[in-house]
Design a protein that fits this description.
alpha+beta, Alpha-Beta Plaits, three-stranded antiparallel sheet, two-stranded antiparallel sheet
Amino acid sequence: MKVTTVPRPSRSLRTQVFVIEVWLGLVVTFRHLFVNLSRHIRRALGLKAPPGSVTIQYPDDPAMLGKRARTRHRLLQREDGAPRCTACLLCETICPAKCIRITAEEAPDVYVEKRAKSFDIDLGLCVFCGYCVEACPVDAIHMDSNNVELSAYNRKDLIWTMDDMLGRKKHEFRTPPAGPTEPGYTQRYQEP
Ligand code: SF4
Ligand code: SF4
């Protein structure tokens, strides 16, 4: 494979005299300050204005995620409670981080043939690309749990098993506001 060398851009005298760049940066900062201040004041006075920017006080205040955000994985179940996964291994094969490990076993249902005996994902390796969701032919795995709090005290706790992803194990999560119709959804989350 050929390595492409990207040349560093040369620094002009103006860039090297940092004072000018610092002042330009401050101009941008104060422009944002006054634009947002005026928006907040106009809205507080009941006048029509686009919403001003706010700082979300995460983690005290959970942030709202986009509808298409790829978050922690979950496995879906059939009506009888059995996992939908047929252990076809397509997700394990396509995973670029090689962080999915599935063990297959024979399923009692002759129409299903195979099922997953174990299904582990190492979230310490996962790059949240969503390929596993795209590859699944039976819509058995989703990344719409709306949870991005992945921290753990050791790497072993970052490995999520089938029970974790089926919701059979209790985990303490905070639920972010779901959208404008949710009572907890406040004006400051609204898009302009
Ligand atoms: S999101 Fe990407 S990296 Fe993570 S388990 Fe799925 S395929 Fe692998
Ligand atoms: S692609 Fe879907 S059915 Fe196949 S092993 Fe992965 S989750 Fe299971």
